[in-house]
Write a structure and sequence with these properties.
Elements: E1 10-13, E2 18-23, E3 34-39, E4 46-51, E5 57-59, E6 67-72, E7 77-82, E8 91-97, E9 100-101, E10 105-110
Parallel strand pairs: 1-10
Antiparallel strand pairs: 2-7, 3-4, 3-8, 4-5, 6-7, 8-9, 8-10
Length: 111
């Protein structure tokens, strides 16, 4: 299994947007789908969103209507578009594909 990589994190102000990427060879062809998780400092990892091989999408209540997960099959990349970011969205965001975790990317939202 190839570990996915996730460019796109950074430091932004509340209300801003960021787009995270999760990419690996063959990523969007896998039947297990792709999930995003996040972990704030001192807290447990929480699930954020999922996109299935059939393009079905699911969101945690805390991000629904602000985050959008999508995929680009030509680039073997899954995106997490995050709008109207809040300080509570701060954390390390990781994608998870077929029992393989990406290395994670830090997202920090200042108030």
């Amino acid at each position: 299994q190839v570990q996915p990589v996730e460019p796109g994190g950074g430091l932004v102000q509340a209300g801003s947007s960021l787009r995270l990427s999760c990419t690996a060879p063959g990523l969007t062809s896998k039947v297990c789908g792709v999930a995003w998780f996040r972990q704030a400092s001192g807290k447990q990892r929480e699930w954020v969103s999922f996109i299935g091989s059939d393009d079905r999408t699911v969101y945690a209540d805390s991000v629904r209507d602000r985050f959008t997960i999508s995929k680009d099959k030509a680039k073997d990349t899954v995106y997490l578009q995050m709008n109207n970011l809040k300080p509570e969205d701060t954390g390390i965001y990781s994608c998870y594909v077929c029992n393989v975790w990406g290395q994670g990317t830090q997202v920090t939202v200042s108030s």
